[in-house]
């Protein structure tokens, strides 16, 4: 991540569930903007799209501020994948 990033995504692709968390820079501090989990078969892109839609519905001004700087696809991502059990 760079100091100019306005948002980032944290994805946990586990064996039982897929989780997505949206972090955003608000007033020069990183804040949790939303999180969502679904069964493992759910595509991570669908969770991300849902999180962004919920942010746009809850706080349109903040969503516009974050989107004004970069597209969702350009946001940095931290991805954790759970491997198969031994």
Which short descriptors sum up this protein?
alpha+beta; 29% helix
Topology summary:
Layout: E1 7-13, E2 17-26, E3 29-39, H1 44-58, H2 60-69, E4 77-81
Parallel strand pairs: 1-4
Antiparallel strand pairs: 1-2, 2-3
Helix pairs in contact: 1-2
Largest sheet: 4 strands, mixed
User: How many distinct beta strands?
Assistant: 4
Mean residue pLDDT: 89
Alpha-carbon distance between the termini? 33 Å
Question: Largest sheet, order of strands side by side?
Answer: 3-2-1-4
Low-confidence stretches: none
Compressed to H and E, one letter per element, the order equals EEEHHE
Outline, from the CA principal axes? globular
Judged by helices, strands and strand pairing, the structural class is alpha+beta
Helix content: 25-40%
Number of helices: 2
Quaternary structure: single chain
**What is the CA-based Rg, rounded?**
13 Å
Beta-strand residue fraction: 35-45%
Please tell me about this protein's structure.
It is a single chain. The chain is 29% helix and 38% strand. The radius of gyration is 13 Å and the shape is globular. The protein is of the alpha+beta class and 86 residues long. A 4-stranded mixed sheet has the order 3-2-1-4, covered by helices on one side. The protein has 2 helices and 4 strands; from the N terminus they run βββααβ. A hairpin with a 3-residue loop joins strand 1 (7-13) and strand 2. The longest helix is centred in the middle third of the chain and has 15 residues, at 44-58. Helix 1 (44-58) crosses helix 2 (60-69).
